[in-house]
Specification:
- It is globular and about 75 Å long.
- Helices cover about 85% and strands about 0% of the residues.
- The relative contact order is 0.11.
- The chain has a single domain, classed as Orthogonal Bundle (MetI-like fold).
Protein backbone atom coordinates (compact mmCIF):
# COMPACT_ATOMS: atom_id res chain seq x y z
CA UNK A 1 0.00 0.00 0.00
CA UNK A 2 2.83 2.38 0.89
CA UNK A 3 4.51 1.61 -2.42
CA UNK A 4 1.31 2.42 -4.34
CA UNK A 5 0.86 5.70 -2.47
CA UNK A 6 4.48 6.64 -3.14
CA UNK A 7 4.10 5.88 -6.85
CA UNK A 8 0.89 7.92 -6.97
CA UNK A 9 2.60 10.82 -5.23
CA UNK A 10 5.49 10.78 -7.70
CA UNK A 11 3.03 10.64 -10.62
CA UNK A 12 1.00 13.70 -9.57
CA UNK A 13 3.68 15.79 -7.87
CA UNK A 14 5.26 17.31 -10.98
CA UNK A 15 1.97 18.00 -12.83
CA UNK A 16 0.54 19.69 -9.73
CA UNK A 17 3.72 21.74 -9.35
CA UNK A 18 3.63 22.84 -12.99
CA UNK A 19 -0.05 23.78 -12.77
CA UNK A 20 0.63 25.77 -9.59
CA UNK A 21 3.54 27.62 -11.21
CA UNK A 22 1.42 28.37 -14.30
CA UNK A 23 -1.46 29.59 -12.14
CA UNK A 24 0.73 31.96 -10.09
CA UNK A 25 2.85 33.16 -13.02
CA UNK A 26 -0.15 33.95 -15.21
CA UNK A 27 -2.46 35.33 -12.53
CA UNK A 28 -1.64 38.95 -13.26
CA UNK A 29 -1.30 38.50 -17.02
CA UNK A 30 -3.03 41.05 -19.24
CA UNK A 31 -1.89 39.50 -22.50
CA UNK A 32 -4.64 38.60 -24.92
CA UNK A 33 -2.63 35.64 -26.18
CA UNK A 34 -1.64 34.29 -22.75
CA UNK A 35 -4.64 34.78 -20.45
CA UNK A 36 -4.50 33.76 -16.78
CA UNK A 37 -5.02 30.08 -16.11
CA UNK A 38 -7.99 30.90 -13.88
CA UNK A 39 -9.68 32.52 -16.90
CA UNK A 40 -9.02 29.47 -19.04
CA UNK A 41 -10.35 27.10 -16.37
CA UNK A 42 -13.46 29.23 -15.89
CA UNK A 43 -14.38 28.74 -19.57
CA UNK A 44 -14.29 24.94 -19.45
CA UNK A 45 -17.89 24.42 -18.39
CA UNK A 46 -19.21 26.81 -21.03
CA UNK A 47 -17.08 25.43 -23.87
CA UNK A 48 -16.87 21.68 -23.33
CA UNK A 49 -20.51 20.82 -22.85
CA UNK A 50 -21.96 17.38 -23.51
CA UNK A 51 -23.03 18.47 -26.98
CA UNK A 52 -19.54 19.64 -27.90
CA UNK A 53 -18.00 16.48 -26.52
CA UNK A 54 -20.28 14.46 -28.82
CA UNK A 55 -19.66 16.80 -31.74
CA UNK A 56 -15.88 17.17 -31.50
CA UNK A 57 -14.23 14.80 -29.01
CA UNK A 58 -16.09 11.62 -29.97
CA UNK A 59 -15.38 11.89 -33.73
CA UNK A 60 -11.71 12.51 -32.96
CA UNK A 61 -11.53 9.42 -30.75
CA UNK A 62 -13.23 7.28 -33.38
CA UNK A 63 -10.81 8.42 -36.08
CA UNK A 64 -7.86 7.86 -33.77
CA UNK A 65 -9.08 4.37 -32.87
CA UNK A 66 -9.62 3.42 -36.53
CA UNK A 67 -6.26 4.74 -37.71
CA UNK A 68 -4.39 3.31 -34.73
CA UNK A 69 -5.99 -0.13 -35.10
CA UNK A 70 -5.23 -0.17 -38.82
CA UNK A 71 -1.60 0.74 -38.16
CA UNK A 72 -1.26 -1.82 -35.37
CA UNK A 73 -2.58 -4.73 -37.44
CA UNK A 74 -0.65 -3.70 -40.56
CA UNK A 75 2.57 -3.10 -38.65
CA UNK A 76 2.49 -6.42 -36.81
CA UNK A 77 1.56 -8.46 -39.89
CA UNK A 78 4.15 -6.84 -42.15
CA UNK A 79 6.77 -6.82 -39.39
CA UNK A 80 6.42 -10.54 -38.74
CA UNK A 81 6.51 -11.27 -42.47
CA UNK A 82 9.58 -9.14 -43.14
CA UNK A 83 11.50 -10.33 -40.07
CA UNK A 84 10.81 -13.99 -40.89
CA UNK A 85 12.56 -13.84 -44.26
CA UNK A 86 16.11 -12.68 -44.88
CA UNK A 87 15.27 -12.01 -48.53
CA UNK A 88 12.24 -9.90 -47.57
CA UNK A 89 14.39 -7.84 -45.19
CA UNK A 90 17.01 -7.23 -47.88
CA UNK A 91 14.37 -6.15 -50.40
CA UNK A 92 12.18 -4.07 -48.10
CA UNK A 93 14.64 -2.30 -45.79
CA UNK A 94 15.74 0.43 -48.27
CA UNK A 95 12.12 1.26 -49.13
CA UNK A 96 11.12 1.20 -45.46
CA UNK A 97 13.92 3.58 -44.51
CA UNK A 98 12.83 5.98 -47.25
CA UNK A 99 9.14 5.88 -46.34
CA UNK A 100 9.85 6.20 -42.62
CA UNK A 101 11.84 9.38 -43.26
CA UNK A 102 8.87 11.10 -44.95
CA UNK A 103 6.97 13.17 -42.33
CA UNK A 104 3.31 12.06 -42.29
CA UNK A 105 1.93 15.66 -42.27
CA UNK A 106 3.57 16.18 -45.67
CA UNK A 107 1.42 13.36 -47.02
CA UNK A 108 -1.86 15.05 -46.07
CA UNK A 109 -2.28 16.86 -49.42
CA UNK A 110 -1.39 13.67 -51.30
CA UNK A 111 -3.81 11.54 -49.29
CA UNK A 112 -6.51 14.16 -49.83
CA UNK A 113 -6.13 13.72 -53.60
CA UNK A 114 -6.93 10.01 -53.36
CA UNK A 115 -9.15 9.76 -50.28
CA UNK A 116 -11.00 13.07 -50.39
CA UNK A 117 -11.56 15.26 -47.35
CA UNK A 118 -13.74 12.96 -45.27
CA UNK A 119 -12.97 10.63 -42.40
CA UNK A 120 -11.12 8.22 -44.71
CA UNK A 121 -8.41 10.81 -45.28
CA UNK A 122 -8.00 11.50 -41.58
CA UNK A 123 -7.83 7.80 -40.72
CA UNK A 124 -5.27 7.23 -43.48
CA UNK A 125 -3.10 10.09 -42.19
CA UNK A 126 -3.14 8.65 -38.66
CA UNK A 127 -2.39 5.14 -39.89
CA UNK A 128 0.43 6.34 -42.19
CA UNK A 129 2.33 7.76 -39.23
CA UNK A 130 1.50 5.16 -36.58
CA UNK A 131 2.47 2.14 -38.66
CA UNK A 132 6.24 2.74 -38.65
CA UNK A 133 7.10 2.38 -34.96
CA UNK A 134 4.89 -0.72 -34.77
CA UNK A 135 6.41 -2.29 -37.89
CA UNK A 136 10.04 -1.56 -37.02
CA UNK A 137 9.69 -2.68 -33.41
CA UNK A 138 7.96 -5.86 -34.56
CA UNK A 139 10.83 -6.59 -36.93
CA UNK A 140 13.34 -6.01 -34.13
CA UNK A 141 11.37 -8.19 -31.70
CA UNK A 142 10.99 -11.10 -34.11
CA UNK A 143 14.66 -10.97 -35.13
CA UNK A 144 15.65 -11.11 -31.45
CA UNK A 145 13.90 -14.47 -31.02
CA UNK A 146 15.88 -16.72 -28.70
CA UNK A 147 17.71 -19.31 -30.80
CA UNK A 148 17.44 -22.01 -28.13
CA UNK A 149 13.67 -21.56 -27.93
CA UNK A 150 13.44 -21.57 -31.73
CA UNK A 151 15.46 -24.79 -32.03
CA UNK A 152 13.44 -26.41 -29.26
CA UNK A 153 10.19 -25.56 -31.04
CA UNK A 154 11.57 -26.94 -34.29
CA UNK A 155 12.67 -30.17 -32.66
CA UNK A 156 9.19 -30.68 -31.23
CA UNK A 157 7.57 -29.98 -34.57
CA UNK A 158 5.98 -26.68 -33.57
CA UNK A 159 5.59 -24.89 -36.90
CA UNK A 160 3.22 -22.64 -38.80
CA UNK A 161 0.50 -20.83 -36.87
CA UNK A 162 1.33 -22.66 -33.63
CA UNK A 163 4.90 -21.38 -33.77
CA UNK A 164 3.66 -17.86 -34.50
CA UNK A 165 1.12 -17.93 -31.69
CA UNK A 166 3.08 -19.62 -28.93
CA UNK A 167 6.66 -18.59 -29.70
CA UNK A 168 7.13 -15.69 -32.10
CA UNK A 169 4.43 -13.25 -30.92
CA UNK A 170 4.95 -13.82 -27.16
CA UNK A 171 8.70 -13.39 -27.59
CA UNK A 172 8.31 -10.21 -29.65
CA UNK A 173 5.40 -8.76 -27.66
CA UNK A 174 7.52 -6.49 -25.39
CA UNK A 175 9.04 -4.87 -28.49
CA UNK A 176 5.66 -4.72 -30.20
CA UNK A 177 4.11 -2.93 -27.23
CA UNK A 178 7.01 -0.49 -27.19
CA UNK A 179 6.14 0.36 -30.79
CA UNK A 180 2.45 0.61 -29.98
CA UNK A 181 3.20 3.06 -27.17
CA UNK A 182 5.23 5.27 -29.51
CA UNK A 183 2.50 5.05 -32.14
CA UNK A 184 -0.16 6.23 -29.69
CA UNK A 185 1.46 9.62 -29.13
CA UNK A 186 2.10 9.98 -32.87
CA UNK A 187 -1.54 9.12 -33.53
CA UNK A 188 -2.81 11.90 -31.25
CA UNK A 189 -0.60 14.43 -33.03
CA UNK A 190 -1.71 13.30 -36.49
CA UNK A 191 -5.35 13.24 -35.39
CA UNK A 192 -5.13 16.95 -34.61
CA UNK A 193 -3.19 17.79 -37.79
CA UNK A 194 -5.59 15.89 -40.04
CA UNK A 195 -8.57 17.70 -38.50
CA UNK A 196 -7.05 21.07 -39.36
CA UNK A 197 -7.51 20.35 -43.08
CA UNK A 198 -11.00 20.68 -44.57
CA UNK A 199 -12.74 19.36 -41.44
CA UNK A 200 -16.13 20.17 -39.98
CA UNK A 201 -15.63 18.68 -36.50
CA UNK A 202 -12.99 17.26 -34.20
CA UNK A 203 -10.61 18.63 -31.60
CA UNK A 204 -8.16 19.98 -34.16
CA UNK A 205 -11.00 21.70 -35.99
CA UNK A 206 -12.32 23.21 -32.74
CA UNK A 207 -8.92 24.62 -31.74
CA UNK A 208 -8.44 26.22 -35.17
CA UNK A 209 -11.95 27.69 -35.12
CA UNK A 210 -11.34 29.23 -31.70
CA UNK A 211 -8.07 30.70 -32.95
CA UNK A 212 -9.65 32.11 -36.10
CA UNK A 213 -12.48 33.59 -34.06
CA UNK A 214 -9.95 35.17 -31.68
CA UNK A 215 -11.46 33.21 -28.78
CA UNK A 216 -8.08 32.73 -27.14
CA UNK A 217 -9.17 31.36 -23.72
CA UNK A 218 -11.41 28.87 -25.52
CA UNK A 219 -8.49 27.89 -27.74
CA UNK A 220 -6.39 27.19 -24.64
CA UNK A 221 -9.15 25.01 -23.22
CA UNK A 222 -8.98 22.90 -26.38
CA UNK A 223 -5.22 22.52 -25.97
CA UNK A 224 -5.70 21.42 -22.36
CA UNK A 225 -8.36 18.91 -23.43
CA UNK A 226 -5.87 17.43 -25.89
CA UNK A 227 -3.27 17.15 -23.14
CA UNK A 228 -5.73 15.49 -20.76
CA UNK A 229 -6.80 13.12 -23.54
CA UNK A 230 -3.19 12.13 -24.08
CA UNK A 231 -2.73 11.43 -20.38
CA UNK A 232 -5.88 9.30 -20.18
CA UNK A 233 -4.93 7.30 -23.28
CA UNK A 234 -1.43 6.71 -21.90
CA UNK A 235 -2.85 5.48 -18.59
CA UNK A 236 -5.28 3.13 -20.36
CA UNK A 237 -2.49 1.82 -22.57
CA UNK A 238 -0.33 1.22 -19.50
CA UNK A 239 -3.09 -0.82 -17.87
CA UNK A 240 -3.53 -2.96 -20.99
CA UNK A 241 0.22 -3.39 -21.36
CA UNK A 242 0.70 -4.48 -17.76
CA UNK A 243 -2.14 -6.98 -18.09
CA UNK A 244 -0.97 -8.47 -21.39
CA UNK A 245 2.71 -8.48 -20.44
CA UNK A 246 2.23 -9.53 -16.83
CA UNK A 247 4.42 -12.59 -17.44
CA UNK A 248 7.20 -10.40 -18.84
CA UNK A 249 7.20 -7.86 -16.00
CA UNK A 250 6.99 -10.73 -13.51
CA UNK A 251 10.04 -12.43 -14.97
CA UNK A 252 11.99 -9.15 -14.97
CA UNK A 253 11.07 -8.58 -11.34
CA UNK A 254 12.18 -12.08 -10.46
CA UNK A 255 15.50 -11.56 -12.21
CA UNK A 256 16.07 -8.27 -10.37
CA UNK A 257 15.25 -9.93 -7.06
CA UNK A 258 17.61 -12.81 -7.80
CA UNK A 259 20.36 -10.45 -8.85
CA UNK A 260 20.03 -8.28 -5.74
CA UNK A 261 20.01 -11.41 -3.58
CA UNK A 262 23.26 -12.60 -5.10
CA UNK A 263 24.81 -9.18 -4.69
Amino acid sequence: MIRVLRALLFAVALPCLLVGVWWLASDSSTSVYAPPLRTIVSRFDDVWTADRLRADVLPSLLRLAAGYATAAVTGVVLGVGIASSRTARAVCEPALEFLRAVPPPVLVPVIMLFAGIGDTMKIAVIASGCVWPVLLNTVAGVRALDTVAAETARSYGVTGLARLRYLVLPSASPQIFAGLRQALSIGVILMVISEMFAASNGLGYAVVQFQRGFAIPEMWTGILVLGLLGVVLALLFGLVERRVLAWYHGSRGARRTTGSGRA
